[in-house]
Design a protein that fits this description.
single chain, about 800 residues, alpha+beta, four-stranded mixed β-sheet
Length: about 800
């Protein structure tokens, strides 16, 4: 059979060559043009109608006249031989099928072609609709996108440097944008059960308090609630004036105003798509006018061009001034800074003008004013992605890198002075040890009537230390507990006798002895370092290394800790087998170690708790679905069990139709609503429709593992594999979120860890930088994106300045 098959192929090849030779002999290439033109058919007067569709008889005729193909016994062939045989047969059929039509190459037709085509009527072709493809048009960018591209094109680290000390040569900007004036709503608050008439200024102040969440972090906490109410009512009474009916806060009822504000929120949610677009146009116009500056010929984004609106002061933590009323800032209180030749910013508040105009190139701020709560200066500055901030960041990290070459000298100085006979010297060395090893902030004296009682190293008091908290004999543990920056609790038990603080002459036990000596005989409210101030500490550090301060230690410790922790991860044997998600989790673990070192904490919000609960429920659902899939696979594999017991996906068509109708009705109601009452009803309808859509999503998720009909074994096995991957990914994500819910990883990334360490890590380990840095951070640290994968945080980097 194999010999017969070979002979068939040989005959086929011979037939092909003969056919080609005939076509070459029958061509008109050697006929004179005059004779050739005489052969041409006359030009048709009317358009030729397409030939009729082939009849069944014609199809049969064509089928009979095709060249017969010898049958070959394929029973003895291997699988590969069968495939090759089928391929050859297909080639023979294709030749006899398509070899008769030679329209593709537009060759001159021969007589044999005409005769052959008469045997088979061509199928009618569908008329082609000509679509003219013009040249490719570049994507049109809107104004915001064009400005963003222009800002990215400027590489400040390659631009010419300005003179020493100067920040810019030319600067032009649009000034501050002020909030709209207050419009009275006319809703009266109650006092002692009766409505009270208020002036517009008094009504605005009452509205400030009515807008505060009664269950929030200020009024929801009994301790802060008292501070907040006392401060607010003091300012409110001053605004009301002497002789006003309102005397006692306990008799004040702001509920009517609160109810009005809630209704207005519902009205605003009833906004239509057209109104939303119109609002965006207005917002964009304000942004284009005030949100950008031209500095030394290039465009920069302004960070805070919106003036802070009046309201109640919230503060951070247990701020003693929370609840006080922030007054409205007027243009006369604002100083503007721009270059001499630039046009001055236009004050957009009619009848007012800027308080003062300056042309100072040695400062970075664009605008300046003083707020009425703490009487501190506030500034309008360029955004975090600006060249000003970029230069400052790079200089900060390079200075911290320079500490790599000086750290041993400084630690040697600390070890020597920890045993000094001079108490002031010992206190200085002990404080430096704490800042270096425990990464505490330097701290300083504060007026607790003006600021929250937050503590740093130099302001530690005896009450912040508890010796031997676990009451163990011979223990050298100290529990440190105090409120750090932003009133975040620092609470750690440090074992000064452990190997961690004593290896390589770490001197942990000597530091413990010093603390015992510094606290002996003192009251709980006395300072531990009574001879030390932040100024003295920083002056001493400046003598050890030019420009060195306690803050540089935190930046150095954060950066070097991240680099060392990542190196440990990469050196592990299984590192190269990890997925990108697993590498990101390892990076976050290293980041978390840095955040804990620097005490970067955050409080867990209700939204976070809800999100984690939802993720946990979804993970459990996936795990249950995987169990169901395994049962389905067993049923399919067991031929004795009927497939009818396999659960199938239920139709969601009715539910989806109901959701679509509800959303459409809500949209129609929004567009038709004229009064506030109609808008509130439309918002309620919209919220209900969105809840239905959420239920539909949950329904789809609950049966996403099922099929509309009985699946095959391979389909089930494939889905089990897919679900296993989903469960693994979600478990990893949930663990990562649980571990980091009380730790602020972002603070370390933004302010303390050199971004070049993270960029080099991503490049070396093929991790997308988007998985580590958000778009905001990528724009902020654009100067760090070009480092090589082998880049290291070391002393040589510090020499770059």
């Amino acid at each position: 059979s194999a010999i017969f098959y070979s002979c068939c192929l040989l005959v086929f090849d011979l037939h092909s060559h003969i056919k080609i030779a005939q076509e070459m002999d029958d061509s008109d290439d050697d006929i004179p043009i005059a004779s050739l033109s005489a052969k041409l058919p006359p030009k048709p007067v009317a358009p030729v109608k397409p030939p009729p569709a082939p009849t069944a008889a014609a199809k049969v005729k064509v089928k009979k006249e095709t060249v017969p193909i010898a049958k070959v016994d394929v029973s003895n062939m291997t699988e590969e031989e069968r495939k090759a045989h089928k391929k050859k047969l297909k080639a023979i059929r294709d030749f006899h099928k398509h070899g008769k039509v030679e329209k593709k190459k537009k060759k001159k037709r021969s007589a044999s072609d005409d005769v052959f085509e008469k045997k088979k009527a061509p199928k009618p072709k569908k008329p082609k609709t000509e679509t003219k493809k013009g040249p490719k048009v570049a994507k049109t960018l809107d104004k915001t996108q064009r400005i963003a591209q222009a800002m990215k094109a400027f590489l400040w680290w390659e631009a010419p440097k300005v003179p020493e000390g100067a920040q810019w040569l030319t600067m032009e900007h649009g000034g501050v944008f002020f909030p709209e004036s207050y419009v009275p709503h006319g809703v009266k608050m109650n006092y002692n059960g009766k409505p009270v008439d208020l002036t517009p200024e008094q009504e605005e102040c009452a509205t400030f308090f009515a807008a505060v969440d009664p269950n929030g972090m200020h009024l929801g906490n009994p301790k802060t609630k008292k501070i907040f109410i006392n401060n607010f009512f003091t300012d409110f009474k001053e605004l009301l004036g002497k002789g006003h009916v309102i005397k006692d806060f306990a008799k004040c009822d702001f509920t009517p105003i609160t109810r009005h504000l809630d209704e207005q929120k519902m009205v605003r949610k009833a906004i239509t798509d057209g109104e939303r677009k119109a609002n965006k146009v207005v917002k964009d116009e304000i942004n284009f006018r005030h949100g950008y500056a031209i500095v030394d010929g290039h465009i920069e984004k302004v960070g805070n061009y919106n003036m802070e609106p009046p309201g109640t002061f919230r503060g951070r933590g247990e701020h003693p001034k929370m609840g006080k009323v922030k007054q409205r800032v007027m243009p006369e209180q604002v100083f503007m800074n721009f270059s001499v030749e630039a046009p001055p910013p236009i004050c957009d508040m009619p009848g007012h003008a800027w308080g003062e105009v300056r042309h100072d190139p040695y400062v970075q701020w664009l605008g300046n004013w003083k707020e009425n709560i703490n009487f501190q200066d506030k500034y309008m500055q360029l955004a975090a992605m600006s060249s000003f901030k970029g230069k400052s960041d790079r200089s900060k990290y390079n200075k911290a890198a320079r500490l790599c070459g000086n750290i041993e000298k400084i630690r040697s100085d600390i070890r020597k002075n920890l045993k000094s006979n001079d108490k002031a010297v010992r206190q200085l060395a002990t404080a430096m040890w704490v800042i270096d090893r425990l990464a505490l902030r330097v701290g300083g004296e504060k007026d607790t009537d003006e600021e929250a009682d937050t503590v740093g190293c130099c302001s530690l008091r005896v009450e912040h230390m508890t010796f031997n908290p676990n009451k163990e004999e011979g223990s050298k543990e100290i529990e440190l507990e105090f409120l750090g920056k932003d009133s975040m609790l620092f609470k750690q038990t440090i074992d000064f006798g452990s190997e961690l603080y004593n290896e390589n002459n770490g001197m942990g036990e000597q530091v413990y002895k010093n603390f015992q000596d510094f606290t002996k005989g003192k009251k709980t409210t006395d300072d531990i370092f009574e001879t030390l101030t932040p100024t003295i500490l920083n002056q001493h550090l400046g003598q050890l290394m030019p420009g060195l301060s306690a803050k540089v230690f935190r930046t150095y410790n954060a950066s070097i800790t991240l680099q060392n922790e990542l190196a440990k991860k990469v050196e592990s044997p299984a590192w190269n087998t990890l997925t990108v998600s697993q590498k990101v989790t390892n990076y976050n673990d290293a980041n978390r170690i840095v955040a804990i070192l620097c005490n970067h904490q955050r409080s867990v919000s209700k939204a976070q708790e809800t999100q984690l609960d939802n993720m946990g429920n979804k993970l459990k659902t996936l795990q249950d679905q995987k169990k169901v899939l395994k049962k389905i696979l067993k049923i399919l594999q067991d031929k004795d069990r009927p497939n009818s017991i396999i659960p199938l996906k239920q139709s969601e068509a009715d539910l989806k139709a109901g959701v679509d109708k509800a959303l459409a009705d809500a949209k129609r109601m929004k567009e038709e609503a004229k009064t506030d009452e109609e808008k509130i009803e439309a918002t309620k309808k919209d919220l209900k429709a969105k809840e239905m859509r959420k239920d539909l999503g949950n329904s789809k998720f609950s049966q996403a593992h099922l099929w509309d009909k009985i699946p095959s074994e391979s389909q089930v096995a494939s889905r089990i594999k897919n679900w296993t991957e989903k469960i693994s990914k979600m478990s990893l994500d949930l663990k990562n979120r649980e571990d980091n819910k009380e730790v602020s990883l972002g603070t370390s990334k933004i302010n303390y860890m050199d971004p070049r360490i993270s960029v080099a890590f991503c490049k070396e380990n093929e991790v997308p930088i988007e998985r580590i840095f958000s778009k905001t951070l990528r724009d902020k640290f654009n100067w760090a994106m070009s480092v090589e994968p082998v880049w290291k945080f070391n002393y040589e980097i510090g020499l770059e300045g």
